[in-house]
Design a protein that fits this description.
GO terms for molecular function: deaminase activity. With about 120 residues, the chain is an alpha+beta fold. The chain has helices at about 45-60, 80-90; strands at about 5, 20, 25-30, 70-75, 100-105, 115-120. Strands 1-2-3-6-4-5 form a 6-stranded mixed sheet, covered by helices on one side. The chain is globular, with a radius of gyration of 14 Å.
Length: about 120
């Protein structure tokens, strides 16, 4: 199997932001605690939007879109943010929406309140 790795400025560790393996694209957890200029973003709505904007860039680089996403995992710092995260998340995905798991988890940095990873199916792309 051949693999293609995607990376972009800002990755903070020994990993690829996304890996294409066969017909699947695996997108590492995206965080959104800063905007495109590096300024801090507060609140789960702003951070969810930024996570998904970054994911959109990786999907586009792979020749895909949110319509190709089949599974996501959302990591939330607080259960109280679930409805607010959903209000933003829903605007990025059309029906049928991908399968999803949501986990309440500790985050690597205290300012991060949400992280989202995804798997996309890309046959023939």
């Amino acid at each position: 199997m051949t693999k293609k790795y995607f990376s972009a400025p800002g990755a903070q560790g020994p990993y690829s932001l996304a890996v294409r393996a066969g017909d699947y694209l695996y997108i590492s957890g995206q965080i959104g605690h800063t905007d495109i200029e590096g300024k801090p973003l507060a609140g789960v709505e702003a951070q969810t939007k930024r996570c998904l904007e970054k994911m959109a860039e990786l999907l586009k680089e792979a020749g895909a879109s949110f319509d190709d996403v089949v599974k996501t995992t959302v990591f939330l710092k607080s259960q109280e943010d679930f409805a607010k995260m959903n209000s933003v998340y829903t605007t990025f995905f059309s029906a049928p929406k991908p399968a999803r798991s949501t986990v309440i988890a500790g985050m690597v940095f205290p300012e991060i309140v949400v992280e989202i990873e995804a798997v996309a199916y890309l046959p023939g792309v």
